[in-house]
Specification:
Layout: E1 4-7, E2 10-11, E3 20-21, E4 26-29, E5 38-44, E6 51-56, H1 59-67, H2 74-77, E7 82-89, H3 92-104, H4 107-117, H5 125-132, H6 142-145
Antiparallel strand pairs: 1-4, 2-3, 5-6, 5-7
Length: about 150
Amino acid sequence: MQRYTEVLFFTTTPTTSSLRRQGPIQRYQIGDAMPKAGYVYILASRRNGTLYTGVTHDVARRVWEHKHDLIEGFTRQYQIHRLVYYEWHRDIRDAIRREKQIKKWKRAWKIRLIEERNPEWRDLYDELLDALYPPELGGGNSERRQ
């Protein structure tokens, strides 16, 4: 007899911290590895400034590293610290494909993508932390906010 576990995925949007069900319930055989989820994110130096597109499985940690210039290269050189867009993918491989797709886009397309969900180019980092680690569930994460 095979045993299964059912997993229900939830996601949040960049403009709200409300949870939404993402797709159907997934069934995994007990003992099978579930795919690792991933995020595509866009950082900006300022409104209509320099953009950086990245992918990670831990978006809160990765953005925190960018904000504190712990990652050498483009984002440190051009002071790109504002999280202006992110999207969640159930499978990291899908997130990698999406990142590659967005990186090939014209700048105007990226700006349109950002402004559809974040027209004021707010830094979404604190909202992201609240969505991932809700305070009512004990997820203050003050060390990540500094």
